[in-house]
Amino acid sequence: MESLDVLIIGAGLSGIGAGHYLRAEHPARSFAILEARASLGGTWDLFRYPGIRSDSDLHTFGYEFKPWEDREAIADAPSILAYLRAAADEDGLGPHIRYHHRVVRAGWSSRTARWTVEVERRAGPDGPAELVSFRASWIFAATGYYRYDEGYTPVFEGRERFAGEIVHPQAWPEDLDYAGRRVVVIGSGATAVTLVPALVRGEGAAAHVTMLQRTPTYILPVPRVDRTAIRLRKVFGERRGHALTRRKNIARQRLIWVLCRKYPAIARRVIRYLNRRALPPGFDLDTHFNPPYDPWDQRVCVAPNRDLYRALAAGKASMVTDQIASFTETGILLRSGEELPADVIVTATGLNIQVLGGAQLQVDGKPVSFRETVVYRGLMLSGVPNLALAVGYTNSSWTLKIGLLCEYFCRLLTHMDEHGFDTACAVADPEMATRPLLDFGAGYVRRALDSLPRQGPRTPWVMSSSYHDDRKLIRRGPIADEWLRFTCAAADAAAVTAADGSPESTATGRSPEGTPAHSSAEKTATELRQEAGA
Fold first, then answer.
1. ∠ Cα 296 352 145 (to 5°)
2. DSSP label at residue 472
3. Residue 428 belongs to what domain range?
4. Sorting pLDDT into bands at 50, 70 and 90, what band is 493?
5. Bridge-partner residues for 320, per DSSP?
6. Residues 367 and 426 in one domain
7. CB under 8 Å to 347, separation ≥6 — which residues?
8. Is the whole model's pTM more than 0.85, yes or no?
């Protein structure tokens, strides 16, 4: 069984970032990055639908430590994937990444202060699976927030009657030919807003694309190229220009967020004005671009270089706001009685949220229920020792938060080294009121709230959405506080083992003979969980 200091789960944007910070701040620590798929990149390697791109600028969506050098700030997936591969190569992460390794379960033993992680390993994507185990002092879960094997598709009445093709963007067929065909895209989120103009662009374009939405979303026209960033790079050089551009864009994101949350009526008027300017005269703005909620109650989408508006103005695409009554043999029947003809239907209807990539956790033999935990500093879970969970921002660039969390994680390891600790566990006040993890109205979030960890009413238990606040708390704040308990369980366990000869615990958190994998010589993680009321 391989034993490591840190086991990173996931080789996407967050996992590659975590690998960089570990190499830079703790070069002597051993680590591996387990990736279930055949290549790194996460989202940017998984999704293959036409036009897939970022919603955020890559100067902030990319890493602080690696400047984004491409001309276009709103980048497509191949460009982002090339950037991630270059980052991994520059940090020498290749030998650390284990592909076709899917984590199934992990068990923490307070006796040994170690995780035992059971992993399905395959020789290739279609090869037989064998179960292997790793031991690690820490798990850094960079698994993202959704299921990779399937997206969310609601039940559509009459779906089986449709004679054409039905595809979900998360499983886009490489051989799908939509050239000259009528396409209906169901959805109003970022994927739909990206797909519609892409499907009518260039050779092989669809004959016509209809964006069918039940509820409108806020959409902002943005430039694909950040000309200020280019000028800053020319004047100050790559590194300094990158830093200045990040500061500028972080400030802009914060300004937009504050405007939308504190002055929603003004924000609505501004967005409406921008949409009216971008859309052709006479377009029904009130029906198709007037959401019944405030900006940033759900994610605000972007249209780089007005691509969606241009497709609508050219008549290559149209927008319908209605509800689906049923699928028919030739298209979709709407509640209004109108029927949309279609040869291809794309269900851009969202994701299935999943914590830790679906892996099961146990602490000293007791299963961990995520909904009974509370997030600590946006990184750890109450009652779960030596586990870091990387979750980025939903209201700005995801990676801004990930970078801060990686910095804090490395600072935490340094603190534990300096004081001789091997276990860190956040303990929440059992009387503390909690609320849902995300104050976000997107459908895929609402569907999953009951299965997610909770957040508290105050720092450090709040899932902050402010980079400004997090920078003070996570980057500059002290490591030790009244809620984070440090112990040296391994030393106590070693003494007990020497005295009674009892074996190490297994991945289930119990010894092979079935005796509890801890002793009275230490305060176990289970006892800490009981203190937290978990």
1. 70
2. I
3. 2-148+353-531
4. low
5. 212
6. yes
7. 151, 153, 156, 166, 167, 168, 169, 186, 187
8. yes
